[in-house]
Amino acid sequence: MQKTIETIKGNDDAISYEFPVFRIAGSSPDAPSAYIQAALHSDELPGVVAIDALMPKLRKAQAEGRIRGALTIVPRANPVGRSQQFFGAPQGRFHLGTRTNFNRDFPLIGRPDAGLLPGDDRPMHADQRLKARLLKLSLGHDIVLDLHCDDEGLPYLYVQKELWPAMADCAACMGVEAVILWSDASGASFDEAALYPYLQLPAGEARLERRAVTTVEYRGILDVETGLAGADAEGLYRLLVARGVVEDKSVTTPKEFKGEVAPIDHIDMVPSPCAGAVLYDVKPGDRVAAGQRIATIVTAPGEEGGRVEVLAPQAGFILTRRSSRATLAGGDLVKLVGDRRSADARSGALEA
């Protein structure tokens, strides 16, 4: 296993950022290759600890000559976001200089050619340099996994429709509970940018049937635990075995995904009607009926009429809910995956 350090120039000559990259060469040039990164939103750590638990398995496989396809692994992909600390808390979702989400505005290139990506000689903000570098690292890999987490939620995948149902084996191996299918555009998120150049190629060159490109949402931001990390690492390892990156005859690799599959336009981002404290009646995974109360907002505590009920806009199941119990008017309370198309359907990114 080779470790190298990537350096990202800052916006000032006195500032630069670094992050490690681990590479394992495969023994078979025809085997699928894999790229795995975590913490693009730098304070999302479930994927980081999953990679940490995965690495001993990969080192053992390498020592025994069982790595068939090349692997590139970036355990913490966002040193720029990690440096944005306020009152002891990282601000990892948006770059404060450009006010842009770290998982938006990746370069969309017309073919898988790293020469089309901007280099460090081009005047850019540090977050834009980081995005170009991460995309360059991922190019050429058949499997591209971007490990994230939600506030509180089920483990689930975002998968572009062009890759489903061919990626059902991946969802089954990883042990997620839901898959959300999307199309059109997602604001040039990392997974969109990673697959985009291949979608521009003729089918014979694109080889979409062997590609697995996804955003992985590992439950909630507080779900950083030894047992969960181990289980997630097992899921990643099963996927690598199932797709032929790693050889391991002792591992069972399921093909059939038995979880929930829904198009993104079935998701209702249920907003709070007012500011206040949130009292939830539901948790991720619960099924609800149309009109069922899912939360109460305590907006004027102690006063008559100081509570406002929030009802489910349609039947479905709760995918996620917010971790903070304080809300402003219009703040999203839950992602409800409905049984039908949402009245407020969105085909691309659900959140900023």
Explain this structure:
The protein is an alpha+beta fold. The chain folds into 2 domains: 257 residues, 3-Layer(aba) Sandwich (Aminopeptidase), CATH 3.40.630.10; 74 residues, OB fold (Dihydrolipoamide Acetyltransferase, E2P) (Beta Barrel), CATH 2.40.50.100. 21% of the residues lie in helices and 30% in strands. The chain has 7 helices and 22 strands. It has a 9-stranded mixed beta sheet, sandwiched between helices. Strands 10, 15, 17, 20 and 22 form a 5-stranded antiparallel beta sheet that branches. Strands 19-18-16-21 form a 4-stranded antiparallel beta sheet, with no helix packed on it. The chain is globular, with a radius of gyration of 21 Å. The protein starts with a strand and ends in a 14-residue tail after the last strand.
Q: Work out the helix count.
A: 7
The Cα radius of gyration reads: 21 Å
Helix content: 10-25%
- Strand percentage: 25-35%
The CATH superfamily of the largest domain is identified as: Zn peptidases
| DSSP strand count | 22
InterPro entries: AstE_AspA_cat (IPR055438), N-alpha-Ac-DABA_deacetylase (IPR053138)
Cofactor: Zn(2+)
GO molecular function, one term: hydrolase activity, acting on ester bonds
Domain Succinylglutamate desuccinylase/Aspartoacylase catalytic: 31-193
Short description:
This protein has 352 residues and is α+β, with helices and mostly antiparallel strands. It contains 7 helices and 22 strands. It folds into 2 domains: 2-258, 3-Layer(aba) Sandwich (Aminopeptidase), CATH 3.40.630; 265-338, OB fold (Dihydrolipoamide Acetyltransferase, E2P), CATH 2.40.50.100.
